[in-house]
5'-methylthioadenosine/S-adenosylhomocysteine nucleosidase
Amino acid sequence: MSSHQRPAGREDFAVALVCALCLEFDAVCTVVDEFWDEDGDQFGKTGGDRNMYVTGRIDKHNVVIVLLGKGKVNSATAASDLRTSYPNICLTILVGVCGAVSSTDENGIRLGDVVISDSIVQYDFGHQTDQKFVRMRVSSTQPPRAYEQEGSSFKANIQSGAGVQQGNVMEFF
């Protein structure tokens, strides 16, 4: 029996975990402490929302997990539908390899690494010259201040050597 109170509705979810690949979706589901929808979709969604959601709890956080469709249009639609069906989401985490291949370089990004960014770069905004691809400079909206501070704290711990290593990343949020 759980000591955590079951959410009353979609408004009680503040964290979304977004996955681009089925493999990532399955991996995220393995860290859910308690599923809220084992007996079917308890919370529903708004009309026209085509997403398939899994809801549950990770530590003290009610989370909604969504698998994106292929391509930017499907991803944008999924994000829009998520925002409509779960209006109180204040933290969305893109989970997975983001289409990257693990590096064999000791200093490269590898599976299991946590990457925290202070900006967003769209991979296809730019143009090709004879020599290289030139990315257009596009400013993105800044994350909420509270997340900037938590992210800075997290990065400071990593840079000082006090990193999380085997710790729980969700503690920082």
Q: What stands out?
A: The radius of gyration is 18 Å. Residues 9 and 43 are 6 Å apart (CA to CA).
